[in-house]
Design a protein that fits this description.
With about 260 residues, the chain is α/β, with parallel strands linked by helices. The protein is built from ten helices and eight strands.
């Protein structure tokens, strides 16, 4: 029964009607261990050779473990595929991938996108990040890495972030299996010219997540980073897939608009 529940969670899509016609192309990239791993690019209809802005959906959990727990890799989770479809339907290319080692492979995918931008129909100067939940620390690691300096913007939804002010919340969260490579960094390491959209779920039930997120937001404002904060007051964790409300759909639209306008 528990296995059935996990598979139901894995297939859950966001609560938003997505226009038809999105094209999903299967490709591959070279992971950090030298293996070829699957990479999917979602394109708006019609799929042609336009130089599109791209959104990389960053994951932070080893896909071997994801496959064991949920019966599928992260790129094939219903929430990730439906977000990718929505971003593509909104005029952007959306990229999902299989990781072996989440920290290095996120960077490897980013470098692959830049190296093969022309063939993929992507504008390498207009790449943004989307990430959520326990995956967000890995997205922040991409931002603070030297290869992340050219990222144009990032949307971070109901996520753990950095351990600040002596906190160990993110470090403790790593027991669930998510990587926390950005720990040791501070908000001042985040590029000051990269607009951030941070979405908070007011009723988030994950252990101390909002405590951690609120510290990150306060530090970002204190450092005058270009941060936009959206608080879904009645939102649960993963509200985009579990809270089928007008407010949820409005916030999903805000996320898409934020990325589209900055890319």
């Amino acid at each position: 029964m528990a296995d059935m529940d996990l598979r139901a969670v894995a297939s859950r899509r966001i609560v938003y009607d997505i226009p038809p016609g999105v094209v999903r192309r299967e490709s591959s990239y070279t992971a950090a261990d030298g293996s070829a791993q699957a990479l999917d690019v979602y394109y708006p209809p019609p799929a042609d050779n336009r130089s599109l802005p791209a959104v990389l959906i960053v994951t932070g959990y080893p896909d071997a473990g994801m496959q064991r727990v949920f019966g599928r890799v992260a790129k094939d989770l219903g929430s990730n595929t439906s977000w990718a479809e929505l971003l593509a339907a909104s005029g952007m290319a959306a990229v999902t991938y299989v990781n072996v080692e989440p920290v290095h492979d996120a960077i490897a995918v980013l470098e692959h996108l830049r190296r093969h931008a022309v063939a993929l129909g992507i504008d390498s100067s207009r790449i943004g990040l989307w990430s959520c939940s326990g995956n967000v620390p890995n997205a922040l690691a991409v931002l603070v890495a030297p290869t992340g300096q050219a990222i144009r913007c990032a949307a971070l939804l109901y996520g753990y972030t950095l351990d600040l002010d002596g906190s160990t919340i993110v470090k403790e969260m790593s027991v669930f299996g998510f990587v926390t490579p950005a720990n040791g960094h501070t908000v001042t390491d985040v590029p000051s010219d990269v607009p951030l959209l941070v979405v908070r779920a007011g009723r988030d039930e994950m252990p101390r997540l909002n405590e951690n997120l609120d510290m990150f937001i306060a530090h970002a404002i204190r450092c005058n980073l270009p941060i936009t904060v959206v608080n879904h007051r009645a939102g649960d964790h993963a509200f985009d897939a579990v809270n089928d409300t007008v407010e949820t759909r409005s916030i999903i639209r805000q996320v898409v608009t934020f990325l589209a306008e900055r890319l």
